[in-house]
Amino acid sequence: MARIKRGVTKHRRHKKILALTKGHYSVRHSLYRRAHESFIHAFRYSWEHRRDKKGDMRSLWQVRINAAARANGLTYSKLIHGLKLAGIQVNRKMLAELAIRDPQAFAQVADQARAQLGPASA
């Protein structure tokens, strides 16, 4: 059986992992075995958190929309229901942007939603 010499390959692989864990605490950036564990966990966390970020942003938009809706005399759920009845299709990201950057435009959207809900919501 042929002898396998992997000095260069192994060294490159170790260097790559140690470069990826640069900045990790203690021996997690200097010892290969600990660095490899750290790398595996860090990349798993980053993968999961990229997905969590979508839900976090949606929650933030809902909070901002609710605050602006309450300033206009509605609740978040009544505003969304009124928009649905009015046939206004604006996603939560854009509603949140309107609430922050252009309160007058958001007030107009809220008024249209309120008009669709009828006199009971006013």
Reconstruct the topology from this structure.
Elements: H1 7-20, H2 32-71, H3 76-86, H4 92-101, H5 103-117
Helix pairs in contact: 1-2, 2-4, 3-5, 4-5
Describe what this molecule looks like in 3D.
With 122 residues, the chain is an all-alpha fold. The protein has one domain: c-terminal domain of poly(a) binding protein. It is built from five helices and no strands. α1 packs parallel to α2, α3 packs across α5 and α4 packs across α5. The protein is rod-shaped, with a radius of gyration of 26 Å. The model has no long low-confidence stretch (mean pLDDT 94).
CATH architecture identity: Orthogonal Bundle
Counted by DSSP, the helix tally is 5
| CATH fourth-tier homologous superfamily | Ribosomal protein L20, C-terminal domain
Order of helices and strands: HHHHH
Describe the biggest sheet?
A: none
Structural class: mainly alpha
Contiguous runs where pLDDT drops below 50 for at least 5 residues: none
Helix content: over 70%
Average pLDDT taken over every residue: 94
How many domains? The number is: 1
Strand content: under 5%
Please identify the top-level CATH class. Answer: Mainly Alpha
Rg over CA atoms, rounded to whole Å, is 26 Å
Q: Characterize the overall form.
A: rod-shaped
CATH topology: c-terminal domain of poly(a) binding protein
Distance N terminus to C terminus? 86 Å
Strands, total number: 0
